[in-house]
TrEMBL record:
Coiled coil: none annotated. This is Phosphate regulon transcriptional regulatory protein PhoB. One of its GO terms (biological process) is phosphorelay signal transduction system. The keyword Nucleotide-binding does not apply. SMART domains: PP2C_SIG (SM00331), REC (SM00448). It comes from Tritonibacter multivorans. Gene3D superfamilies: 3.40.50.2300, PPM-type phosphatase domain. The gene is phoB_1. Keywords: Hydrolase, Phosphoprotein. GO terms for molecular function: phosphatase activity. PANTHER family: STAGE II SPORULATION PROTEIN E, STAGE II SPORULATION PROTEIN E-RELATED. It comes from the Bacteria. SUPFAM superfamilies: CheY-like, PP2C-like. The keyword Cell membrane does not apply. The modification 4-aspartylphosphate is found at residue 69.
């Protein structure tokens, strides 16, 4: 039996995590002794004479601490503990079993049922106080952890809402960016230009396009803005206006002649104009690489400026391939720099491939990069006789097959294919 509490035990009631205590015992005398002690220590105490009655009381209000006898008629303390744990949900109560059992297998059975601690009858007052204090520390930590988890969960929900809003905005931004490339393939007489644009995220920093101010005159380009994401995408939107296929008066690649018609500016002049505009804009740190060409569809003469962009690949009708260009400095990186253009002749059936470094710098399964020779191998794998959009789609498919299975797109991938078939 638990001895009556002394005056010294009355003066410092347990406070903190444990306020409400449920005492479960079929012995009225045992309950009376335990309840008297607990009330002296400052607890709110409720009683139950059976496990079934205790379960009903717990369903109405969860106690902080449960002191339950092990051996009771009907539902035993072990059965009550197990049923209580299964029904308590997120709430947690510290559960102490009162027992005369001390065998290890019996203690293991109680722990397995969900008990936190054991007290052997007859219960010592000092030991009971010590076990309650230990339970309080555990409950306090458990509730602090629960509160922190709640805050984390709420924060994650808020972050998810913010992410969903940003994701929605990015989806809309992608639609806007896609509008910069309204046509992926277009014929100009017998010749044609096809475009490929695969951003590594919702939006990207690559831009491809084409425009023609009149019959047999054609301009086309491939641009790669430094960096990724929103800032790069905003720059591509700006460049899309500078090289508009719809509003010729805004297109720096064109100039009006005699107030009657538009003519194509020389490529080196276009690069210089774009460079001057970017340098003049304070606060803009982005730059871009570019391969920009103009073609005379009557003769097959192509004039090109290469500003830090990968070397274009010339695909001859006879199956031979060669990289062309001298490199050059990216646009918007150095002020007042001059750009030079080069000319080359294309024959009927020749094709010119402009592409971003998303191709050549793609990582393969062994960790190496595709590089220029790897690009030639991808072209060779394309099905014979393909042209236009089919060729670009097959080229991209071949790239995905040699990339690391878990790498995904690490950079935006884009390409422009010009196929010369005469006027």
């Amino acid at each position: 039996m638990l001895p009556e509490p002394t005056d010294e035990q009355d003066v410092s009631p347990v406070s903190g995590s444990i306020r409400r205590v449920l005492v479960v015992d079929d012995s009225r005398l045992q309950r009376r002794i335990l309840v008297a002690s607990l009330k002296k220590w400052g607890f709110e105490v409720v009683e139950a004479e059976s496990g079934e009655q205790a379960m009903e009381m717990c369903q109405q209000e969860l106690p902080d601490l449960i002191l339950s006898d092990w051996m009771m008629p009907g539902m035993t303390g072990i059965e009550f503990c197990r049923a209580f744990r299964e029904s308590s949900g997120d709430g947690y109560s510290y559960f102490i079993l009162l027992t005369s059992k001390s065998e290890k297998n019996e203690v293991a059975e109680g722990l397995d049922a969900g008990a936190d601690d054991f007290l052997t009858k007859p219960v010592s007052s000092d030991e009971l106080r010590a076990r309650i204090s230990a339970g309080e520390r555990i409950l306090r930590m458990q509730r602090e952890l629960f509160e922190k988890n709640r805050i984390v969960s709420e924060t994650l929900d808020e972050l998810q809402s913010v992410y969903d809003a940003i994701d929605k905005d990015l989806m809309q931004a992608r639609k806007i960016q896609e509008s910069l490339v309204p046509e992926l393939s277009k014929s100009f007489g017998s010749s044609s230009v096809s475009l490929l644009l695969k951003p590594c995220g919702h939006i990207g920093g690559d831009l491809v396009g084409m425009f023609s101010p009149g019959v047999n005159r054609l301009g086309f380009y491939s641009i790669d803005v430094s960096g990724h994401g929103i800032t790069s995408a905003m720059m591509t939107a700006r460049l899309g206006g500078y090289l508009s296929s719809t509003y010729f008066d805004q297109n720096v690649g064109m100039e009006k002649k005699f107030n009657r018609f538009y003519a194509l500016r020389p490529p080196e002049e276009v690069a210089s104009l774009l460079n001057a505009r970017l340098i003049a804009d304070t606060g803009i740190e982005e730059y871009f690489t570019m391969a920009y060409c103009i073609a005379d569809l009557r003769t097959g003469l192509v004039k090109m400026v290469q500003a830090g962009h990968p070397h274009p690949l010339l695909l001859r009708k006879d199956g031979s391939m060669e990289f062309i260009g001298q490199g050059g400095v990216p646009v918007g990186l150095v002020p007042d720099i001059g750009y030079s253009q080069e000319e080359f002749q294309m024959e009927l059936g020749d094709r010119l491939l402009l592409y971003s470094d998303g191709f050549t710098e793609a990582h393969l399964e062994d960790g190496s990069m595709l590089d220029s020779e790897g690009l030639i191998e991808l072209v060779k794998k394309c099905k014979p006789g393909q042209s236009g959009q089919e060729f670009l789609d097959d080229l991209y498919w071949n790239l995905t097959q040699v990339m690391g299975k878990d790498s995904g797109l690490e950079d935006d991938i884009s390409a422009t294919l010009f196929e010369f078939q005469g006027p």
